[in-house]
What does this fold into?
Amino acid sequence: MIKRNQARTIVLALLLAFACAGCALPSPVPLEDGASSVASDFVPSGASSGSSSGTYAVDLTDMAGNAIQLSAYPERIVVLDPGDCEILYAIGAGASVNGRSLSCDYPTEALALPYATVDGRNDADMVLLREPQLVVMGAEDAADAELVSALSNAGIPMLVTNATDVNNLYGAISLLGQVTNHTAEANTLVSELITSIAALQTKMSEHTETVYLELTPLADGMTTLGGGNIFSALLAQLGYHNEFEDQQGLLQVTQDQVVGRSPDIILTSARADTATADSSTPDPFLTPDPSSTADPATPSLQGPAEILARAEWAQVDAVKNNRVYYFDPALITRAGPRIVEGINALYTALYESRQPEFS
It folds into this structure.
């Protein structure tokens, strides 16, 4: 039986997909000191070319409460958030994207687009070089006061999204559909997501176990995600808890912190090096390299195997129970159309205690 909050998700999403044209936003909250606020269960307000005023082709409010008024649908869009990039392509608006951030690496077509970044960081001059008619950004990008100021001074409209849960993901999809004149395609995508997620929710149950996501390995300084994001929302939807949901944003954590919390399940973005793993038996005919200090019989471990071998982690519940899995972080940290693939993979790891398969 679908739980009350799950049923609420489905009802809200269905209302969004099929009746958004007549819906209104809660009172918008303006940007303050570069930080954006998001109304819960966001539904895009406004209209496209059929608006009552007839003045603008696009007249709506974004997820930060900013008014977006465009005389024509944008044909040159710079997108900075990877989830938004995936949405734009999924609803058929990819042809209008002419610039991206380094993190916008999916779908394959996006890789041909020029960067609007320098050394992986958003750069106002690079964004302006693309001569955008609209810049689509997430809340983290909108908190970059220098970037926002430069775009404002140049008269470039900015649309802010912030899909911290599934309901707001539906709203972000519809918002991007409206601003690009792909409303029908956006509603179709929302409907497909609703159907897929509703089917999965019938198999969910409440759990007390916690999940730790290791975005960067121990050797590079461990980072993870706290609460208030799509990753934590997906775990909650599956009945589990993010180990660090009591904190917010991207976190740098220590071994002592993780070991002390003893998460039940660990997901790592580090994939096992199969070539290295297969070379555990040294070639007896191979002449050793005298300059090498590594023992060829003990190759370095990567991915889940490296975590399972950490001596200090021996008493961590996930390590003791061998519940450490590689996971493609893009599927669970980006609010985009591949979220269903992410939920299915999470189900495999959390409910079936198996390593999910990724292409």
The CA atoms of residues 222 and 342 lie 22 Å apart. The first strand starts at residue 46 and ends at 47.
